[in-house]
Amino acid sequence: MDETATATGITRKKVPDNEETIIKSLNPIVKQWFFSRFSSLSLPQKFGVYSIHCRKNILISAPTGATKTLTGFLSILNELTDLALCNALEERTYCIYISPLKALNYDIEHNLTVPLAEIEALAGRSLGLRVAVRTGDTTPKERAEMIKHAPHILITTPESLGILLQSINFRQHLTRVEWVIIDEIHALAENKRGVHLSLALEMLQHLSPGLCRIGLSATIAPLDNVAQFLVGIGRECIVADVQFLKELDLQVLSPVPNLIDTTYEFMHEKMYELIDKLIQEHKTTLIFTNTRAATERTVHHLKERFPHNYTDLLLEEDERDFTAGVQLQDAAGEQSQPVVSTPPQENVPIPFTQIKRVTAIGAHHGSLSKTHRHTIESRLRKGELKCVVCSTSLELGIDIGYIDLVILLGSPKSVARALQRVGRSGHQLHSVTKGRIIVLDRDDLIECSVLLKSAIEKKIDRIHIPSNCLDVLAQQVYGMCITQKYRLAEMFDLIRKSYSYRSLAYEDFLEVIKYLAGEFASLENRHIYAKIWCDAETGTVGRKGKLARVIYMTNIGTIPDQTGITVKVGAQPIGILDEIFLERLKRGDVFVLGGNTYEFLFSRGMVAQVTAAVGRKPTVPSWFSEMLPLSFDLAIEIGRFRRYMEEKFESGMRGQDILTFIHDYLYVDENAAQAICDYLHEQYEYSDIPHHKKIIIENYLSEDKKYIIFHTIYGRRVNDCLSRAVAFAISKMQHRDVEIGVTDNGFYLASKKYIPASRVFHMLESARFGELLNIAIDKTQVLQRRFRHCAGRALMILRSYKGERKHVGRQQVSSMILLSIVKRISKDFPILKEARREVLEDLMDIAHAKEIIEQVEQKQIEVKTIDTVIPSPFAFNIVLQGHLDLLRIEDRLEFLKRMHDLIVAKISLEQGKHPRETASRGEHTIQTRDRTADHYGRSIH
User: Fold this and answer.
1) How far apart are the C-alpha atoms of 912 and 915, rounded to whole Å?
2) CB 926 within 8 A of CB 653
3) Nearest to 870 by CA among 747, 699, 720, 727
4) What is the CA radius of gyration of the chain?
5) 150, 259, 576, 717: which one has the fewest Cβ atoms less than 10 Å from its Cβ?
């Protein structure tokens, strides 16, 4: 085996194992079953099966539909079959399979029971192998059966594993677990569910020292870090990276030939015509939007515009035969009839008395009922739907059958997410992965073109793995104390084996112990009592209270309760906001609700108090909470391309040579290259091109206020940090707040008075940047809300107690009182410290923001200030973002067109050219008007 080892114990497996060796390791019956189903071993199986057979920890990264799950299970099924045939199966759990989705768990159960039945048929006897699913939906009867007869293969979720580890009756079955499979590990590693799981795995390994860990992942980076997350510190792990084996057919598309000189009606009509054309050219299409509202809107418009394309004939007798009267609800909530996959043929006599038409398109997202989502998934598997439109709910590996085309409406904002989404097409091993990204503006065109290049060249964005989460630590320490007594040193060593706690300071660990042991007396006034005891002399901890296990098991988990926020003017309710949206608001922010503008004042519990703001422009778009952030790595790639283009313009390169460069660099066709060139050239001629090594601070005076636009192409998470730091410093200098708007491409500050934003930005110090942001977020909504989440995870606030569920509103009121108490106890109280860390490191990206400030200090990033009469082309969307709720889409397009014409006219006047064209600084003339083709990009095979 050709391997490359690293200092961390991670080994890159470069060459697959010998196929003959793998086949020899299989039981004859398992071998017979396998080759009755498959002609040969897949490449992931050649990399993974024998390593698992040899009990080696392994992370297998492969595209969707590349047989990862069977790779993980084949050796396990083989060995359990061996034991069963020898009558040596014991009454214990041998393998635990963990995935983030309950729906995926039931798919896996089906995908295991069917092969086991086929293997039993070949063996001519019952093997007695038990497979069971344990989730929150498991009935008490099923749970009792699992305790009585342990499942040999247990399928579960991270939260249910945590419960089982503390279960008196089930814990005995976990003492000699041999394999644990973590599926879709990329969906767990980047959030606190993954942190919780990493500690649960350490506890499982403590019970089962010989545990072999198997990670299954789609597209992800950095693989070495994810491998360490899988196995923990001090353990070896093989990484089998079998990515990009499938044929890729990716294109960036535009519904219109020109993205500027077009009307809303025309663009809207052509977009849906393009979508419908793509759907009709394929058997089954999956469409991803970036918001739930866009999902519903897309389904509605396709049904309305092309009713005959999205209805199938259904006979009443067929309904009885095929669907047993199952009723569906469409996205609008109206009841529709079930469908079958094959409608009756035309010109055939129909002896039935009733014919019905049903929809062949459906919506799928988290706000819809579980029954509706399951029905959509089932119909998709059966081939009964031509198209399903979803937001993010179908990104992971739920079995939805064969999809031959994936359409992305707008940029998915990260390379990994794009590949994950388009990977849902061609779900078989050797099928072509076919994806189309539809763009509607020039920023999207550049972003998606660079994304396409990065996907083809295997430049995957790195995920952020949270570290040292003190709220999750408190919950898990409590759980550990429930089962047994621990010495503090022993417990600390076990915790530090988790990759997520590899750098945990002993002082932070002791602060969590002090909180759990009730050493902060003032918390008892809020009914927060000691949950564990701690003997300082012996350094031993253990559980306290008869209800400890019940409290733990009814409050375990990391996903916070969420609900809508009631908006009121005085005592009068106005509407409902998402809690995530409220997090972003500060006093004075203006937003649109129900077509009217309101100014945010304050919130108390789950009520937001506002006042009418008639005639004022909104500062925060209503869709802000649903926006996906641009990944930092993709933002840097966009910045790098911008820099290359600036260098071409500066060098006086001929226009045709520039077009050739764009065409080759981005894998786009000539027309797309022309459109991109025109856009960047306008920015270059009018002002300057900002990029990852040049920040432009643009001062623009509008009719009613002054705008300072920071062109910082680093993604919204970084820009959130930079904007808050600058705005907070200004508020302290001038004793007044300023308006903030944040996008992926930059941010703006606005005020009716002079703002020394450029001077303040240069005053930011990397050494004190974290301290400044900690102060800046101290009284914000986002910290208040995140503190509630952290307090819930740390069991300061019990969501469930003695059978009663605490409403989210009461939780929030309790958390606000607690927040004021813990601030008086210590500014570094562990749960408050964690809330700040979560805001700055997980929600925002302080690490990369600090890097930007350091590079500015070291003159590695140039900062340039310009003044403009009209916003520069790149500034349009940054300034416009908050106003989109008031502007109709057609007015927005008209505004962009008008601004574009003004820019072209100004450039032309300065150069003495006709407004319809401007000259580049090279020998060749570049037309500033877009000549965008109907499709951008080439199929990549």
Assistant:
1) 9
2) no
3) 699
4) 29
5) 576
Nearest to 765 by CA among 663, 850, 889: 850
For the record, the structure tokens of 305 come out as: 């515009």
d(CA 788, CA 761): 32
DSSP 714: S
Give the pLDDT confidence of 858-888 residue by residue, as tens digits.
999 999 999 988 889 999 888 876 554 444 4
Beta strands 433-438; 405-409: pairing state: parallel
> What sign does the dihedral 50-51-53-59 (CA atoms) show?
negative
Is residue 622 a contact partner of residue 592, using CB atoms and an 8 Å limit? Answer: yes
Number of Cβ within 10 Å of residue 63's Cβ equals: 23
CB-based contact 208:178 (threshold 8 Å): yes
**pLDDT > 80? residue 3:** no
Per-residue DSSP letter, 858? T
**Token representation of residue 506:** 């002993």
The residue ranges of DSSP E strands in 532-606, in sequence order, are 532-535, 540-543, 564-569, 572-578, 590-593, 596-604
Cα distances (Å, whole numbers) of residue 84 to 27, 211, 345, 640, 902? 11, 20, 51, 59, 78
Distance CA 177, CA 497 (A): 19
Q: 432 is written with which tokens?
A: 């072509």
Reading the block at residue 147, the tokens are 């305790």
For residue 119, what are the CA distances in angstroms to 35, 69, 418, 683?
A: 12, 18, 38, 66
Q: CA–CA separation, 885 vs 707, rounded Å?
A: 19
Q: What is the pTM of this model?
A: 0.85
260-264, 308-312, 623-627: range with highest mean pLDDT: 260-264
Q: DSSP string spanning 431-464?
A: S-EEEEEE--SHHHHHHHHHHHHHHHTT-PPPPP
For residues 220 and 414, give the distance between their C-alpha atoms in angstroms, rounded to a whole number.
11
Sequence-distant (≥ 6) Cβ neighbours of residue 293 within 8 angstroms: 623, 626
User: Angle at the Cα of 215 (from 211 to 221), degrees rounded to 5?
Assistant: 140
Phi, psi of 100 (to 5 degrees): -75, -15
Q: Give the contacts of 523 (CB within 8 A, at least 6 positions apart).
A: 515, 796, 818, 821, 822, 825
User: Which residue pairs from 646-651 have beta carbons closer than 8 angstroms and sit at least 24 positions apart in sequence?
Assistant: 646/680, 646/684, 646/688, 646/689, 646/691, 646/694, 649/680, 649/681, 649/684, 649/689, 649/920, 649/921, 649/922, 650/921, 651/922
Cβ contact 194:495 at 8 Å: no
pLDDT value at residue 579: 75
Residue 94: other Cβ atoms inside 10 A: 21
User: 98 forms bridges with which residues in the sheet?
Assistant: 156, 182
244 pLDDT exceeds 80? no
- DSSP string for 313-371: EEEHHHHHHHTTT--EE-TTS-EE----SSPPPTTS----S-EEEEESEEEE-TTS-HH
Please classify residue 78 by burial: count the beta carbons closer than 10 Å to its beta carbon, then call 0-12 exposed, 13-18 middle and 19+ buried. Answer: buried
Residue 635 contacts residue 906 (beta carbons within 8 Å): no
Sign of the C-alpha dihedral computed for residues 188, 191, 194 and 198 taken in this order: positive
Angle among Cα 112, 115, 118 to the nearest 5 degrees reads: 145
Q: Is the CB of residue 907 less than 8 Å from the CB of residue 685? A: yes
Are the C-beta atoms of 599 and 590 separated by less than 8 Å?
Answer: yes
**Residues forming beta bridges with residue 599, ordered by sequence position:** 590, 611
Report the distance separating Cα 573 and Cα 435, nearest Å.
44
DSSP character string of 270-324 = HHHHHHHHHHHTSS-EEEE-SSHHHHHHHHHHHHHH-GGGGEEEEEHHHHHHHTT
Neighbours of 653 (CB within 10 A): 19
Please give the C-alpha separations between residue 895 and each of 262, 891, 892, in angstroms, as whole numbers.
12, 6, 5
Band of the pLDDT at 897, cuts 50, 70, 90? Answer: low
Q: Is the pLDDT of residue 336 over 50?
A: no
